[in-house]
């Protein structure tokens, strides 16, 4: 094969290989749709979703979390994983407490374990109302 | 003369200074002085009584035994209201002389209850002891005598984790129990139970022990229906569903009918249905509708559990191949919640109600399954797409090789 | 004139490129039975280039704070298109680069290419190795997972054992008494700014020195060529040697992509400073030899603390290694064999310790 053709071939295959590398790089440069949503923050609900004195379970990272709207209209949020044996807790409007159906454990609205088996309080989260949306933020360690 | 008076002065000074020490020494506990040196039943271990809850409150031997703790002469020490060895018959009234006296107890610990003696008189132990039985339990049998610790202290024989071992000292004694025509395998049964495992092995102090159901001072064998009330304190939903079901009227013993009283094992899905050893099979068979419903419940539950396991292993495969299945984790947790709810609703004895929970669960499991499958598909896709750059690189390598050969070909060729 | 020629002339008129490039056109590389080892240096440089490129790409999505680092790497690996590829490439290429750097260094040492006049090249090379290890140590923490956290903790603790300056050094490295978000910030700055600047400068110096003195030839080959001048062979750098290098670079890149697809780098579990160190925590393989050595040193030697002695030993070893050209001169021509034995001993020791460290619990 004459040298010039071999060189053309070589340059051609090199350009081809560079293209096959350039494609993933270019795709990479385009940010994914929900960029910026970290596992420390989640959209819990919209502003009209919860009536006063009611609660909602939502997803926070890969665990369930609870958003409670008090009778006063204020919001509170805690982890929904019971500290006893891991069942999912719920809000009980009759007693205004957070309750676990598995062994009748009760927490107050600050997540503190007040009766029954749970040995520890629930983790609490910060609630941030931005316009029509209610965000829940995990408290950061320094 | 002057030296003598100096010496005398110094001695006097010493005596004056040291006298309080001597006096203080004579104020100490001569009971302990003597009895610490004795052997056998009369021996007192100083540290034990000093570190007991009574010791910490400043009480001494004379508080219960009477006598004089300030003299070293035995006869004098054993005078003045000396009670000597407290007999079993005297124990409860002696302890009660303080512990049932509200005014007295207030000065030591106002939040302590003072109804123990009253309760004791209502208990089986108390009633029998009032009839003169010397073998039944009295205060010291459970609480100890000289080394009584508060019940919050894990070394106390009546700390929740130790209660069962304390009761078993009598109640697991076959010979002793036979004389009362009582069974003696309750402790052995309890040791195999899920509550023992929670309390003693896992240290979950909320788990029930003997006193939770039987009472402590007022201990009686609980009546059939009343035990169910105790179970319902923690197992609220199960009790509620059971009470709504057709079984409530059929079984006055409630929970204990199927779950037993002491040997309560963690029920698995084989407990439901018609297989050998299942609770439903005791009364039902495949010939009656409820029996068939029970078997259907069993089948649905085991099927759903198998679905969860299968999805779990799929997720593990994906994650060990380096793919992300975090989304599916939440869904699997929700599916497990649904299974728990379905199992609890077994107590309704209603197939539709169990199925309702399982249907909700199936939706979630399916989502998790799809997430895991998508992850595995992505993995395969990556491996296939690898061929593109590999082919391109191979082409380059071949071209390079050819070009280098071409470059270095000798002109004579 | 065609377009390419016109552009070339335009540039050359202004920048005098011809003059700058002509030495490169004439550059040659000696050809003998050990010539294949010459590829390692360029390969290390190529992998450094891969690191720069993938590193810059990762920089577009990485969040250098304790609260967000792990999640940002998770985002890159799981959500960004081909993020998994860029990230695994970066991690695998790092390891391959360290390996090539060591291999290049040991082949140079065995061939005794550090002899006069190439002492400075050797020194700049050893410094480059330390910079590369610094890259490895600082970069390892950035994903902020458990392994990274505790590896950094142990590593900085070792530095803290040095007498007199140790504690101050450790606090400086950690940005505080403990490994924390402050450490992450420092390591990040080190990894993307300070070390790259130093390394690029050092690489340029190293390359200029190599260009100035040409490629060295092992003593045995040199002697043979003196005896038989007709056997001397040289290859042009451009295009012959370079095209062969290119082949090696493509092979390396291919290997990296295969590794990234079949053995993706793990995310691990997010670091939790409050949980205890997982049992059997080990550093990355290129620090295993030192780690294992420290484990074997007895707790006390005479009145000195064993670990401190071990660390001082490493320092001394590093200094001696750096001064290898001068040691050889001091040793004299009759003790060359001992120098070679010494070099082989170091290689065997490091390899053996790494293997033992890898298999032990």
Description:
The complex is a heterotrimer of chains A (142), B (413) and C (361). Helix content of chain A is 19%, strand content 35%. Chain A has 1 helix and 10 strands. In chain B, helix 9 (116-122) packs across helix 10. Chain B is flat and about 135 Å long. Chain C folds into 2 domains: 28-217 and 235-270, Cytochrome Bc1 Complex, Chain C (Up-down Bundle); 282-361, no CATH class. Chain C has 15 helices and 4 strands. Chain C is globular, with a radius of gyration of 23 Å. The model of chain C has no long low-confidence stretch (mean pLDDT 91). The chains are: A alpha+beta (142), B mainly alpha (413), C mainly alpha (361). The A-B interface holds A 1-3, 6-7, 9-10, 12-14, 16-17, 19-21, 59, 61-64, 84, 87-88, 101-104, 116-117, 119 and B 204, 206-207, 233-237, 326-327, 329-330, 333-334, 337, 340-341, 344, 388-389, 392-393, 395-396, 398-400, 402-403, 406-407.
- Ends distance of chain C: 69 Å
Order of helices and strands of chain A: HEEEEEEEEEE
Helix/sheet category of chain C = mainly alpha
- CATH H-level homologous superfamily name of the largest domain in chain A: Rieske [2Fe-2S] iron-sulphur domain
In DSSP terms (H or I, runs of 4 or more residues), the helix count of chain A works out at 1
Strand content range of chain A: 35-45%
CATH topology of the largest domain in chain A: Rieske Iron-sulfur Protein
* Average predicted confidence as pLDDT of chain A: 88
Write the layout of secondary structure elements.
The complex is a heterotrimer of chains A (142), B (413) and C (361).
Chain A lengths: L2 H27 L11 E6 L7 E7 L2 E7 L5 E5 L10 E3 L4 E4 L4 E3 L5 E3 L8 E7 L2 E5 L5
Antiparallel strand pairs in A: 1-10, 2-3, 3-4, 4-9, 5-6, 6-7, 7-8, 9-10
Chain B lengths: L1 H25 L3 H6 L10 H6 L1 H4 L4 H5 L8 H4 L10 H12 L2 H7 L7 H7 L1 H7 L8 H5 L19 H9 L2 H6 L6 H6 L2 H8 L8 H5 L9 H11 L1 H9 L2 H4 L4 H5 L29 H32 L5 H19 L6 H35 L1 H21 L6
Helix pairs in contact in B: 9-10, 17-18, 21-22, 21-23, 22-23
Chain C lengths: L2 H13 L1 H10 L1 E3 L8 H21 L9 H10 L4 H28 L8 H23 L4 H15 L5 H9 L6 H33 L5 H9 L6 E3 H26 L22 H12 L3 E2 L2 E2 H17 L1 H8 L4 H24 L2
Antiparallel strand pairs in C: 1-2, 3-4
Helix pairs in contact in C: 3-5, 3-11, 4-5, 5-6, 5-11, 6-7, 6-9, 7-8, 12-13, 12-15
